[in-house]
């Protein structure tokens, strides 16, 4: 397997954590989003969407979209599981994960921020307000969902890390990079700290990727 | 089960299709997004995120996020399946579904369009360009993914409708409402037509919901 990613991509960061939790190594390929590698013919041939992550399997099949890739990993490498047992519990974890994957991250990724400042000529201050608005909206809702639930444990669901935590950590990293106020999310930040105490999360963080020093 | 939705919500539309395909009826509750029902204390008590769809189970448990709700339906009512057999095939379908659920729809939903015109004071023309940009980007990538694959059949994956088709149809409805040019997506439009020939899709469309006449 070969994972196409970039140190600062939140979606690639998710998949790095998932691989680490599974204890599986994959070859990695750098797609430098700052210099436009994602738009190259070579990468478009891998993923026509021009986005990371993408995962090529040993037979050449390409999987796209971080959430789909992680579900694949969970189906093919079941231990340790990224989703709990039981359909209701699984729906809870997928729901929490998707508050980030569908309602926060898509609004704040590099392509969107570039469109705002490029095509739309939005100023830096207005772009930052946009960024912080969607983080605040999404994470405060997620905080309400976890703070009010007996299912929440050391992690978003119980005492083992899973798909919701995997989405949370890169989102928090990103939010901190844009100086978002996370004071209203004490439960999420407690979970974030519990995650970062684990090697699987720590080793996946942007600053620990080989390209961080050279292209950062 | 009770499904909180709104006729024009693409995410609620997805779940309506899924229920129809499963042949299961659910009680429905209208959350009028145009008049702000989603921000009411009553609805926030159901879903702190203030978004539809939300599904309450008979024991009172609330499930949020359309993709999580549909995975729940598929796990608890396996026939007919929304996902194919085999981890690679499932990853393909989830990947296609998420091109829409994570990269198109989040940028074009009502909350985002309202932020652009309200907070950001973006003009109508600029808002439409934004809308059409993300539709064009996302659907052209999805077209490349389906047009180039032997797995594509009458529907996005093989000859039975599934999760990718369920996401595609509401997105096309939405795109047509905003006069997007879909001429570059012949495969997707062929699949769209095949879907709309099925009662499960047709009956779920916005115009066939009871509230369409009164609040449209």
Short précis:
2 copies of one chain form a homodimer. Chain A is α+β, with helices and mostly antiparallel strands and 216 residues long.
Major beta-sheet overview of chain A: 4 strands, mixed
The greatest inter-chain interface is formed by: A-B, 49 and 49 residues
Strand tally of chain A: 4
Query: N- to C-terminal separation of chain A?
Result: 26 Å
Number of helices of chain A: 11
How many discrete domains of chain A? 2
- Average pLDDT confidence of chain A is 96
Oligomer, anyone? homodimer
Strand content of chain A: 5-15%
**Roughly what percent helix of chain A?**
40-55%
Radius of gyration of chain A: 17 Å
Helices and strands, with pairings:
2 copies of one chain form a homodimer.
Chain A: E1 2-5, H1 10-22, E2 27-30, H2 41-46, E3 54-56, E4 62-64, H3 66-76, H4 87-103, H5 105-108, H6 110-117, H7 124-147, H8 163-177, H9 186-196, H10 199-202, H11 211-215
Parallel strand pairs in A: 1-2
Antiparallel strand pairs in A: 1-3, 3-4
